[in-house]
Design a protein that fits this description.
mainly beta; globular; four-stranded antiparallel sheet
Length: about 150
């Protein structure tokens, strides 16, 4: 099962949550779910797996979307907490869902050098208070985001 998950669609990121579930995002547009999975896989899905590689659930993206409102393209990063799912979409935004997959909001700055902008963020994390930390490579800074707006810059 692991081999088919790795080969089927091009895994782009992986995250293991505190409960031991493995979250794998795919960048390919030709992904099809594993045999026997009851859901319908869409384009560029985010899969939740158990430790044996069995699919527990799936969230689908909408291909070709430049709009980050309630959709994500190729996921370049994923962080899962007990109450939220954060997905960095192709270094353009972070889309947030609750633990059931319901859309909550988007951190979606413009590109540029202003404090409220990103330019090629390469990584992110979420702390225990729910703040999103962004490693913004071309602006040479770390920024902290809260409630979908910037709150602190290092």
């Amino acid at each position: 099962n692991w081999q088919s998950i790795a080969n089927n669609g091009g895994a782009t990121t992986i995250h293991v949550d505190d409960l031991g579930y493995i979250w794998v995002a795919h960048g390919g547009t030709n992904y099809s779910c594993a045999a026997g999975y009851p859901g319908t896989c869409g384009d560029r899905p985010l899969l939740k797996l158990d430790s044996s590689g069995n699919i527990i659930s799936e969230m689908s993206s909408i291909a070709g979307s430049s709009n980050c409102e309630n959709r994500f393209g190729t996921a370049w990063g994923v962080i899962v907490t007990s109450s939220r799912i954060f997905i960095m979409s192709e270094n353009t935004c972070i889309v947030t869902y609750d633990s059931s997959g319901n859309y909550l909001g988007t951190t979606n700055p413009n590109f540029g050098s202003k404090m409220s902008h990103w330019d090629n963020p390469l990584a992110f994390d979420v702390d225990s208070n729910g703040y999103i930390w962004i490693a913004d490579s071309r602006n040479h800074r770390i920024s902290q985001w809260s409630d979908y707006s910037i709150s602190f810059v290092i």
